[in-house]
# Entry
Amino acid sequence: MAEVLARTKRQSPGRGRARVLVVDDDAVLLRTYRRMLEAADYEVHLATDAEEALRMLDCDPDVIVSDIAMPSMSGIDLLRVLRERGAATPVVLVTAQPHVDTAAAAVEYGAFRYLTKPGGLESLTHVLAKAVRIGRMAHIRQELLYHSLATELKLSDDADLESSFARGLDTLWMAYQPIVCWRTRTVYAYEALLRCREPALPHPGAFLDAARLLGRGLELGRQVRATVASRMLTQPRPGIGFVNLTSQDLMDDALYDRSAPLSQVARRVVLEVTERSPLDEIADLRARIGRLRAIGFRIALDDLGAGYSGLGNFTQLEPDVVKLDMGLVRGVDTDTTKRRLVRSMIQLCRDMEIAVVGEGVETVSERDVLAELGCTLFQGYLFARPAPEPVELTFPAPVEAVPA
# Structure
């Protein structure tokens, strides 16, 4: 059973004293931590190395305090493993020898704080108080997600979720939906959309939620990217492929591997990040996007106009392509407020030389109004539904052949 899922369901913000797991190979310092933290009314658990700490996660720590320099497995490695497993537990890293590389790695993997010995320890209890509050809120969100998913999918126990997810991976496939340039009446690209044949995971959102709860989001993301890459390497279409990324995918070192399957076709790939994702949790987002561009990928921002953090992701990502949220597109032909908003967004993107996709177009009237407002690319059921193979579309002759 996945550790994260088990801890999520047992965790409760009103369970009493906060639990701290301290990891350090210095026995004297461990005793010092115990005295200091117990005096501050924390329940303290001690581990002499990172491997032991990973075995002790069943103690359900609210926060982990770890030395960085330890034999075999460092505190940075511990943090990386926790994030790969999907654990939301805040981690405070401590070091006697601060260095720019370790500080950068701490930021990269989402450390809650980076403290130096001995002076930084004076503020440890204050830091822990904040970390506990944030950690418990994260666990509440995880618990709500679990119960919502369990209700929707009618799961009887954890084994149901794990077995359903495993079958989902075994039957994973990608559907392809065209993105059309209406001015030239051509297919500009195809978006690859996650699908599986597991009845217990009836839609992509359920599949993604299950991966997150089970701590297997990286595994799912890697399989998706490998599947798309295989298709692009062996088939003539899609010429350009849009591939969706979650915020957890952006934390995956494998995404930045130049030898990875998708990297082999990077110049034909647009990586699509949703505006609904909490990207503010990724402290070095701009640097990560720069690394992806250096490989050859282009970046798209999905769901612009209905996002998690307004235009915050827009400025962080500096996208090459944006997709207007279908909530703005739906009914744009009859809603004057939506038309004003869409016109402003399109003009802003045009000034910044960013391509705009009208997503979720279902009627001729919506298409025509978006075209009048300056939108050049379209996606939606009006043109084609997602299909196992990229469909060939035929169009009436364009009025004018203007490049997108």
The chain has 14 helices and 13 strands. The two ends are 50 Å apart (CA to CA). Residues 43 and 336 are 58 Å apart (CA to CA).
